[in-house]
Each structure stands twice: as structure tokens, then as C-alpha cells.
Amino acid sequence: MTDLISPKTKKVTQSDVAKAVGVSVMTVSKALRAHPDISTATRENILRLARKLGYRKDWFAHRLRGAGHRASPTLADVAKAAGVGASTAGRALRGAKGVDPETAMRIHAAAEAMAYRVEPNARYLGQLSRTEGKGVFHATLGLLVGHKDRDPVPHIPHYRLMISAARARAAEQGYGLDVFWVYHPVMSSKGLARVLRARNIPGLLLLSLGPHEVQQEWMDFACVHIGADPGRSLFSFTAADSFTAMEKACSNLAERGCRRIAFAVPRGRDANSGGRIRAAWLQWHHQSRQRPLTFPPIESQRASWMVRKHPDAIIGWEVVASGLWEWLKDFHRKSKIPMPLVADLHLLPDEKRPRGLCGHVWPYASMGKAAVDMIIGQIHRNEIGDPKILKGTLVEGDWVG
User: How much helix, strand and coil, in percent to the nearest 5, is found in the chain?
Assistant: First the structure.
């Protein structure tokens, strides 16, 4: 265990608490918010050591309120403490060029000691005032891609859908969108944060990044997850409404006369939705007074199951790519048993579908647009880093076939 830091000599951060406990910064952040992913024992241990270290979330505000001063330090306060002008302090904190390295270090040290955080609205109001009467206001958002493969966007269709829709929506609002690969071999998370600050990027869209991949440096920005698992996201998020997708599937199949509807969505995919897909399916069976049928995931068990159960319809996930569609067609040819209707919960727009396959088009483009609207709203409200209240936007897709 790391030596404890005296609260009298240094402002204690979440990083200090994490080192003392021997866990990640994200674990500390979640424990302080009483996140359900953290066990009671771990949370109590983190809180006990945080108190022992003298950690306070609003350390500077607490000190100033006790002294009878205003609650938040300003750029002028930082500049005065560092012995420079406000404009020099502002350039140094943005990572702009032209500031002496020693001076920049002194400014950053003063800002850290005061718990000063850059106000993105002030930055953008300055840009707006400079462009007033000279053209259209324009700023930039960042999109961080967390896939392990280098430059995964070209060969993953739903990445392209979300990014292109987000870029178009950002342009409508006067923003550009720069895409960054998080696992670039020559850039650390701190280096990426410096690049983001140098480009005056106030908000980040996170794509394919789990809770364990979120870096402490990103807490200085407004953040929104695109297509996140609603139960695991650390930030506000947009996601497909998987519960409604399954409701639509059951309702449309029932309108075609199907009553014995089998569930063939992989367990892992349902888990990613927080169990919402299976919950909607079970709810429909309860309301329709039908006995639930679960399609066997093991291929050797499927033929005998089909003979015994005779489902009217099967709802699956990527049924063509997974091989389920071809298996059902082959079984139908060999057994002469009528082939059930097949619905795919996860179709892409303009995807070529085999004749007879119906399904739900996953709303990737709408999720990208909704994420841009959320991040711009957060920037305007100065909601940065770890949110006090998680907000989510669930987007419905369309039924085809």
C-alpha cells in the first residue's frame, strides 16, 4: 500500500486515494458515488482511507467558504498566484504555444493548488465574440474510438453510421468533429488530453469504451457515451431501446398469427442490454398467456428441439452472420417441417436481407445524432467530468419486413 499523503501539505485527489487503496481511479470515483458495481466492503474501505487522507471532493470551495470568500477560483486568481497576466495564464492552461515552459509549469502548479478548472463556456464565448459579425461560429468536438484494432472505422459498418451521423449533426450546430483512436501506440492518455486542450475541444463522445478504459484525464471534459450499456456507463449516454425493439418484434409476429415465439438471442448480447431484451420477451409471453420457448444455443440439440416444440417464429440476433438462418433452411429441407418465421433484432440500414427475413433496424445513426445534442447541452451547462446525475437517451429503431 502506498504511503499516506498528509492533507496538510498537499491537496488529496482521487488518484491519491486510488494509490493508497490499490485500486483504479475509476473504482474510487464509482465508490464515492455509491455505484452498484462496487461492493459494500470495497466502498467502505475506500471511504475510510479517503477520510484518513483528508480527501474532499470540493476541497477549494470548502476552504473558501470557511474563509468567507467566493466559492470558485478564477483565471485572474491563478494568474496573480503565478505572477503573470491573465492572457498568459489562459494560454498556458489551454496548452497553447508561445509560453515559456517554466512559466507554464508555475501556472499549472498554481491552478492545481487552487483546484481551478478551465471554464469551457468562457472559452467559447470568447470565440463567439471574436467571430460576431465576421462569419458563423464554429468549434470542435472530439470522438474517442476505443476499439483495439488500428483505425477500425472503415471495416465496422455501425461505427461509420454513428460517426457520419454525429459529424453531420455537429455541423448543423456549428461544430466540427475530430476522431481520435485511443490506443494509438505513440500517444498516451495524457498526451491525448494535451492535444484535446490545445485544440480547444470541450466535449468528448466515447465510442466502444468500457468503464475500465476511461482515463482520469478525460474528467476535464464533458463526456457522453454513444451506444453504451445503460447499466455500466460512467457518463451520460445514448443507447438503442432494446426493450422496445423486442416488444415490436413480438407484436409484429403476433399480428402474423404467431403464438409460439422462441428466443434465440445470445446470452451475452442480452446481458449487454442489462437483460432488457429477454425481459420484454417474457413480458409479452406473460400478457399473451403463452409458454416461453428458448432456442438451444448448442447446435447438436436444435434438431430434436425443433421436432418437439414446433415454434411459429424465432427471434435472433444477426441470424445470417451467426449461421442460424442457413441452419434453419437446411433443417427445413431435410425434415420437411414448416420453417418458422425468423426475425432479426439487429439489422443495419440498407442491409441486404434474405427473402422472408424480417427484423428491427438498429438506430445507430440516431444514437450518433442524439449524443451530439447531449454533449452540446452539457457544454452549455458546464457539466464536466463525473456527472452528479447520469442521463440517458434511449432511441427506437424501425421494423422492416
Answer: 50, 15, 40
Are 31 and 18 in contact, with CB atoms under 8 Å apart? no
DSSP-derived 3-state class of residue 74: coil
In angstroms, rounded to a whole number, what is the distance separating the alpha carbons of residues 389 and 295? 39
In terms of Cα–Cα distance, which of 213, 254, 204, 263 is closest to 233? 213
Residue for cell digits 427445413?
A: 332
Q: What is the pLDDT of residue 3?
A: 40
- Close Cβ partners of 330 (under 8 Å, ≥ 6 residues apart): none
Mutual angle of helices 86-94 and 189-198, in 10-degree steps: 130
Q: What is the DSSP string of 91-144?
A: HHHHT-SSS-HHHHHHHHHHHHHTT----HHHHHHHHHHHHTTTS---EEEEEE
What beta strand segments (E) does 170-255 contain? 175-181, 203-207, 222-226, 236-240
**pLDDT tens figures, 167-217:** 999 999 889 999 888 887 777 888 888 888 888 899 999 988 877 777 778
pLDDT per position as a tens digit, 19-64: 888 888 778 877 776 666 778 778 778 888 887 887 765 433 333 3
pTM: 0.66
